[in-house]
C-alpha cells in the first residue's frame, strides 16, 4: 500500500512569489492535514480537510490556504512568499478526522525562500 | 488549548542501555497521545498511540510508552537501545472530542543519540 506522497520534494522560490504544494493521501484515507516544521517554531498545525471541507485551521496568516479535491488529494498554497516561510511542509493523512485513527505523514516538501 | 512538553532537548544513551524520552501534556478533553520519530530529511514515522485502555502501550521497533493520567505524562521507553534508534522523537496530543478533528499538537522534540 503506497504511503502519503508529497510533491515536489524540494522547492526554491523568490520572495513575493507564490507556491503550490501537493499531497496524495494513502488510498482510502479521507482526512488530510498540513503542518509546517521550522527549527525555531517546531511543528505547527496549518489546516485540516475532510470531504473537501476545511474543518480546522491553525494560527497562520491568510497567505496560507488549501483545498481538498473529491479524490481526497490536497493542495496548499502560499502567496506572497516571505523568507520566514522557508520550512519543511508535511502532509498527514488518516481514515477520518476523529476516533482512534492515527495520522501518517509524507516525506515533506522542503521550501526555501530566497 | 492543548500543549505538549518534552523537557529534554537531547538524550544520550549507550547502546544496549534502556532509553526513556519524557513527555507531559495538557488537553481539555480526553487525551489521544502519539509518538512519532523523524530521521534526517524525512517525514514523521508513527511509533505508537494511546487512546484508552491499558496504560502500557506497545508499538513499533520495540518501543513502548506508559500513560499516567495523574501526572499527565506519556513517556516513551525502549528496554535496550540500538544505534539505529538515533533520531528526533516527537510526542503529540489530540483532543478526543470530534470537533477537534485530527489537529495534533506536538512537543518540541527530543534528539536521541545512541552511542556504540
Structure described in brief:
By secondary structure, chain A is mainly β. Helices cover 0% and strands 53% of the residues of chain A. Helix content of chain B is 0%, strand content 52%.
Give a verbal description of the structure.
- The complex is a heterodimer of chains A (114) and B (116).
- Chain A is 0% helix and 53% strand.
- Chain A has strands at 5-7, 10-13, 19-24, 31-38, 42-50, 53-57, 64-68, 74-78, 87-94, 104-105, 109-113.
- In chain A, the strands form two sheets. In chain A, strands 2, 4, 5, 6, 9, 10 and 11 form a seven-stranded mixed sheet that branches.
- The termini of chain A are far apart.
- Chain B has 116 residues and is mainly beta.
- In chain B, 40% of the residues are buried.
- The A-B interface holds A 4, 6, 31, 33, 35, 42-43, 45, 48, 50, 55-56, 58, 90, 92, 94, 97-98, 100-108, 110 and B 32, 34, 36, 41-46, 49, 51-52, 90, 98, 100-109.
Which key terms come to mind for this protein?
heterodimer; A: 114 residues; mainly beta; 7-stranded mixed sheet; 4-stranded antiparallel sheet; B: 116 residues; 6-stranded mixed sheet; 12 strands; 0% helix; 52% strand; globular
Percent of residues in helices of chain B: under 10%
| Ends apart, CA distance between termini of chain A | 37 Å
| Sheet with the most strands, sense and barrel status of chain A | 7 strands, mixed
Oligomer: heterodimer
Q: Helical element count of chain A?
A: 0
Mean pLDDT of chain A: 95
Q: What structural category do the secondary elements of chain A indicate? A: mainly beta
Number of helices of chain B: 0
Spatial extent as radius of gyration of chain B: 14 Å
Low-confidence stretches of chain A: none
Uncertain runs of chain B with pLDDT below 50, 5 residues or more? none
Topology:
The complex is a heterodimer of chains A (114) and B (116).
Chain A lengths: L4 E3 L2 E4 L5 E6 L6 E8 L3 E9 L2 E5 L6 E5 L5 E5 L8 E8 L9 E2 L3 E5 L1
Parallel strand pairs in A: 2-11
Antiparallel strand pairs in A: 1-3, 3-8, 4-5, 4-9, 5-6, 7-8, 9-10, 9-11
Chain B lengths: L2 E3 L4 E5 L4 E3 L2 E3 L4 E8 L5 E7 L5 E3 L5 E5 L4 E6 L8 E9 L9 E2 L3 E6 L1
Parallel strand pairs in B: 2-12
Antiparallel strand pairs in B: 1-4, 3-9, 5-6, 5-10, 7-8, 8-9, 10-11, 10-12
